[in-house]
Amino acid sequence: MRTKITICIAVILSVAAAAFAKDLKIGYIHSQRILSEFQESTEAQQTLDDEQREWMEQAKQMEEEITDLENELENQSLLTSEEKRAERLQLIQEKYLEYQRFQQEIWGENGTLYQRNEELTKPIIDKVNVIIQKIGEDYEYDFIFDAALGNMVYAKDDYDITDLILEDLNE
């Protein structure tokens, strides 16, 4: 968080200093609005929502199966031998582990949902970034910021002071 603030302050100071030298052309975008109103993005989100609903239904069915097995075991506990009881407990445990694996596979870190989201949104984000670059160059913007995220999404190379920072750091 501090790094972002420091970078933002550095960019603002650079922009302010450059403003004295010439008129700057600065623009901003609302990335969330772009993603919510861009047809390809809304279609991708709908696809992801539909797939997630299917996975949630699968998870619900698995939960219900486990609950049914537990209820059946409880209801028949007086009539069930220790051996059958142990077998059913083993089956319930296996179903529960299967359910946990399914949850981890779908919703875990780098799970299917995450991968599918990346797969669906990466081409859209790439397309948006190409358009931002094109507009930045065609309309001669010096900087374009994203109001939703507070990030710079375009800057003319003339303002890149990375080499100066590295030179000072390496001295």
Describe the structure in your own words.
The chain is mainly α and 171 residues long. The protein has one domain (2-170). The protein contains 6 helices and 3 strands. The protein has a 3-stranded mixed β-sheet with strand order 1-2-3, with helices on one face. Helix 3 (39-75) packs antiparallel against helix 5. The longest helix has 37 residues, at 39-75. It is elongated. The chain starts with a helix and ends with a helix. The model has no long low-confidence stretch (mean pLDDT 90).
Q: Key features?
A:
single chain, 3-stranded mixed sheet, 74% helix, mainly alpha, 6 helices, 171 residues, 8% strand
Q: Which structural category do the helix and sheet elements fall into?
A: mainly alpha
Segments where pLDDT lies below 50 for 5+ residues? none
**Sheet of most strands:** 3 strands, mixed
Task: Name the strands of the widest sheet in spatial order.
Answer: 1-2-3
Average of per-residue pLDDT values: 90
Helix content: over 70%
Oligomer: single chain
Q: Helical element count?
A: 6
* Element-level helix/strand string: HEHHHHEEH
Overall tally of domains:
1
Shape: elongated
- Count every beta strand, where a strand is a DSSP E run of 2 or more residues: 3
* Intertermini distance: 28 Å
The portion of residues forming beta strands comes to 5-15%
Q: What is the C-alpha radius of gyration, as a whole number of Å?
A: 27 Å
